[in-house]
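anyone else get weird line breaks when pasting these?? whatever heres mine. first is seq + tokens for prot A
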Amino acid sequence: MDDIAFLITEEYMDTDRDGNIMRKRTPHRVFCDVKSVTRTEFYDAATHDLKPDLNITISHRIDYNGEKLLVYDGQVYDVIRSYWDGDQVDLTVQARIGETLQRDGYLVMPDGCRLEMPDDNTLLISY
């Protein structure tokens, strides 16, 4: 496993005084391999209005706990499919529109949540 991705766990905490839902996003780093999706998989998914971009294989199944968000190479992805193969987990992911990695190391989500990636490659959360 040569690549690093970040799985993001989302917890719904409470609502603020304006009634907006407050979420806590907790990222954790995993080792992985990244491959493109096959042509067949791409066109089959298109019939269900999905656009898979990558297949990501996580080395240990204990690292994956059903997370629906993943960050790889500065891009945020939705997990649209997971497949368990022995001790590994294969995730098919689709790029999210609107989330960007800023030059100063912040990943800005559409809801204004800001994930910071400092020098040690961990993500910190701030609002």
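and prot B, same format (seq, then tokens)
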Amino acid sequence: MADYDVVIVGACTAGTYFANLLVRKGLKVLVIDKDKEEELSRRLDIFHFTKRSFKDYGLAEAKPGDPEFVRDFSLCYSKSALDNYLKKSLLEVTVMHLPLFIKRLRDMAIKNGADFRFGTSFDRLLYGDGRMIGIVTKNGEEIKARLVVDTSGIPSVVRRSIDDPYIETFEIGPKDKFYVLLKYVKLLNPADKVELSTSWPYYKGWIAPQHHANGAIVGVGANLSLDYARKCMAKFESNIPLPKYEVQYEETGCTPYRYPPFSFVTDGFLVIGDAACLTKPMNGEGITSACGQCTPAADVVAEALKDGKYPTKEALWKINTLYQRDEGAEFANLRATLIGAVAMSKKDNDYMFKESIVFKSDDEEVKGSVNGKLLKGVLSGQFSLKALLSLLASSNCGQKLERHYKKFPDDPKDYFAWKRKAERLWNKAGTMADSIKDV
């Protein structure tokens, strides 16, 4: 009998949340992480979590007085590259300290029966009778489990070590992630207050609340490198009239920005969260994307492990179909479309905001067809022909990808034919990094 039903490699948000879901279903779960407990997830402090997400993922809302709680806000804004046409998103958000939020999840998982080991690194997979039966740690300890779950983040240490045709072993390299640069700042004018989040998608920049009332977080995300992110920050600050401030300190990190693996599962294995590139195309946020994958996956895993069964890829396959036909299809369309939407000038971006093309307020009634507005923009000189062709091509590719993802196969035997077509479509779509010209 296995030492554990499930061993999870990675104890940040995805791994800890998934562990809690599994132990509540009666499974014996171990979570390991290479970091010491007190050093876990210390790269980035402040993050945003929607109030709806608390409800969706069965979590009690963070309230004033809770260690992780910072503040609430109920609106987010976005503006054009020329700082015009304020767009409003009706979104109730809680600002929290990420390490303390993860600690809350961990305390809950431990209370429900999960085991955690810190300072414990994955070395290799353990096989027996021709199948995966656990892991071996760097110190040589064998940990047996019927299911191995990779939630190790960008390094994807388990996924990248698997020799199986259903699992892709790509590295999440510089072109496939956003390097995030955050400046925690003190506002110099007492009249300036940052109580809501405002973004400028053209620069992939934003300003948002932090834990000090007279402070803010100024951030950017960029492909390729942290040095390029600093270059993007300078461009953002020189083009947008942000409040005057002095920098208190900086935080840096990175998040995946590429389409997820086509299959998350094979015999005895599942990949979740950043290791599976599950982030939102509009902003690169991954915490709620991971939770959204974990919730239905826990039901599938519990059934696959029922009565001591070994979890075959056939038993786990529904994790693929549930995601790829729903959020996977939607995000494939949006990700491909955004590749074309960012490959344009500031003037082009300004026109898209003006006409509510891609960028619109939640309570805005949009009239007229997108194609009609784009043609009008070209004829009036407000939108370039080059941008029009780029946007139409990316939108067409995005729609094809969405239709294809909605046809994700029920049977693993049909997977490879589906995968070949998906690869051709993504090769045509390109990547967000392809549009960078000023490195």
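btw re prot B: The chain has three domains: 4-73+95-171+258-312, 175-256, 331-435. The mean pLDDT is 93.
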